[in-house]
From TrEMBL:
One GO CC term on file: Golgi membrane
Membrane topology of the entry: Single-pass type II membrane protein
Protein name: Exostosin GT47 domain-containing protein
Similarity field: Belongs to the glycosyltransferase 47 family.
Organism in which the protein naturally occurs: Rhamnella rubrinervis
GO molecular function, one term: glycosyltransferase activity
Domain Exostosin GT47: 91-161
Domain of life: Eukaryota
Alphabetic keyword roster: Glycosyltransferase, Golgi apparatus, Signal-anchor, Transferase, Transmembrane
Lineage of the species this protein comes from: Eukaryota, Viridiplantae, Streptophyta, Embryophyta, Tracheophyta
Length: 248
């Protein structure tokens, strides 16, 4: 079994690198400042005070989707903040400055990059902007636990353009607030917290492993009865098992 950070199902050469039946996805390791010192580093802004509809703070890396976003930012600088508009490179930004830019939009765009994963998706939850996934084959952690439709948007990477901005602009603030609120409930799953923490990335990993065991009918934790039903040692049917964290 391989544990990979959140990312695309393919590697740099577009070759399948993830096997759903045996592998699990784990969150990337976020800057501790985002999770332990939020009040001074990344206190979220009210939606009414955010300058931009969306932002993309990343390099082009020769990727089509990223190049489209940078061009879109040039066309609509009042709606989309992109890195080449105000500063020549992210290397010149401190982490605090980066977070300040990130929090100044309602939506944080997360396209496919050079590697198969990105921290931007996770960071967006701590600055409380809604992540918009622009990576068609993205594989996200804990998909059996989290309903991503309640906390994020996934948009076709081949449709990056003015239509994307029009769609995001059409979403009422109350819907954005609802998604942000749901995101607050699950973002603890991105944090590699101490063992005693009630919610952490390690807990999510154990949930995923537990589900893998339940789905493998020949495991030592799987039993079956005369009527064809599969149960665990507590006589709970697999079909009745529910993920421990569900959003309303």
């Amino acid at each position: 079994m391989v544990a990979d950070e959140e990312g695309d199902r393919t590697d740099k050469k577009d070759i399948s690198a993830f096997s759903t039946w045996k592998d699990i996805i784990i969150p990337g390791n976020i800057d501790d400042g985002m999770t332990t010192n939020e009040a001074t580093i990344i206190q979220p802004l009210p939606l009414s005070k955010r300058k931009y509809l969306a932002n993309y703070l990343g390099r082009a890396q020769g990727k089509v989707g990223r190049l489209k976003l940078i061009e879109l930012g040039k066309q609509f600088p009042d709606k989309l903040e992109s890195p080449e508009l105000k500063f020549s490179g992210l290397d010149k930004l401190s982490r605090t400055e980066y977070f300040e830019h990130l929090r100044n939009a309602k939506f944080c765009l997360a396209p496919r990059g050079e590697s198969s994963w990105t921290l931007r998706f996770y960071e967006s939850f701590f600055v409380e902007c809604v992540p918009v996934i622009l990576s068609d084959q993205a594989e996200l952690p804990f998909q059996n636990v989290i309903d991503y439709t309640q906390i994020s948007i996934k948009w076709p990477s081949t449709r990056i353009g003015h239509q994307l901005l029009e769609y995001l602009e059409s979403i009422p603030d109350e819907d954005i607030e609802r998604m942000i609120s749901h995101g607050r409930k699950v973002r603890c799953l991105w944090v590699y917290a101490p063992d005693l923490a009630p919610c952490s990335a390690m807990q999510g990993i154990l949930w995923e492993l537990q589900r893998k065991v339940r789905q493998f009918h020949q495991s030592a934790e799987t039993f079956w009865l005369h009527n064809g039903s599969f149960i665990d040692r507590n006589f709970v049917k697999f079909s009745d098992w529910k993920p421990p964290m569900r959003l309303p």
